[in-house]
Design goal:
Blueprint (H helix, E strand, L loop, with lengths): L1 E4 L19 H4 L3 H16 L14 E3 L6 E3 L24 E5 L8 E5 L3 E8 L4 E8 H9 L3 H7 L2 H4 L2 H16 L7 H11 L7 H7 L3 H16 L4 H19 L1
Antiparallel strand pairs: 1-6, 2-3, 4-5, 6-7
């Protein structure tokens, strides 16, 4: 069940900032796995994905020029993409907004133009979460989900830098948590084992990595500050003395 829709607005362009910001302040104290994932995503946006989406990659190093007996170097430079804030609330499948120029006729002045992906609102079913989700997707994301035979496989097998969406990362986090805890289908043990065995190969993350997986940058900073606050909070002497007494009693019991 799908219906064609268009984005409500195209603004809030978010180009990647300098990667040095991950070496300063609270960001520098975030877990390494979280920082590395964010850096990979930023580099993918700046340098382009390994699989070209908006251009055809030419083979070789040289190609024939427009004039006879001329040779030109092959330049497979990725097209700069713009990802507005709305991209975090849907699945764009590697597509982005392109800002450029068009020339209507020969020797005419170039006119600015913005190319926008084609969007649709799709009702997608997650086997792991056992829920139907209404998500805005692009045509390419729709095709990738179909090629993966479902939303769950697409989300779990696609690298984070290719998903490039907070919604997708939060779904991935929830799916992995359900698989790790085996909390799926609590009232149907047979189906729980069937779905778990189908997707357990994607459990390649530690528990800590999954906890941080679906957090945006702001949420991660807030969580890190809260953890540091808890660590620096003084513990009552009563708790310390109680723990020491229990440990001593255990040692005495082992000696006897």
């Amino acid at each position: 069940m799908t219906s064609v829709v268009y984005p409500k607005l195209i603004r809030g362009f978010c180009n990647p900032k300098s990667l040095r910001r991950w070496e300063i302040g609270v960001r520098a104290r975030l877990p390494d796995h979280y920082k590395q994932r964010k850096i990979r995503i930023a580099k993918a946006i700046m340098n382009g994905a390994d699989t070209p989406v908006h251009y055809e990659k030419e083979p070789g190093l040289w190609k024939e020029g427009h004039h006879p007996d001329t040779v030109l170097p092959v330049q497979n430079r990725p097209i700069p993409l713009i990802f507005p804030a709305e991209a975090d609330q849907g699945l764009w499948g590697g597509e982005g907004i392109i800002k450029g120029y068009v020339q209507r006729r020969h020797r005419a002045a170039r006119a600015p133009k913005i190319w926008v992906p084609h969007f649709r609102e799709a009702i997608l079913y997650s086997e792991i979460l056992d829920k139907h989700l209404k998500i805005t997707v692009t045509d390419r994301a729709w095709q990738l989900i179909d090629d993966a035979f479902g939303l769950d496989s697409y989300i779990l097998q696609t690298p984070e830098e290719d998903l490039n969406s907070n919604l997708a990362l939060k779904l991935k986090q929830r799916m992995l948590e359900a698989l790790m805890d085996k909390s799926l289908y609590p009232n149907d043990a047979e189906k729980r084992e069937k779905i778990y065995n189908k997707y357990k190969k994607y459990i390649t993350y530690s528990r800590e990595e999954v906890e941080w997986l679906g957090l945006s940058e702001e949420e991660a900073i807030e969580k890190q500050e809260e953890l540091e606050k808890q660590r620096s909070k003084p513990r009552p002497l009563k708790e310390i003395f109680t723990e020491e007494l229990i440990a001593k009693l255990k040692i005495d019991k082992m000696k006897t």
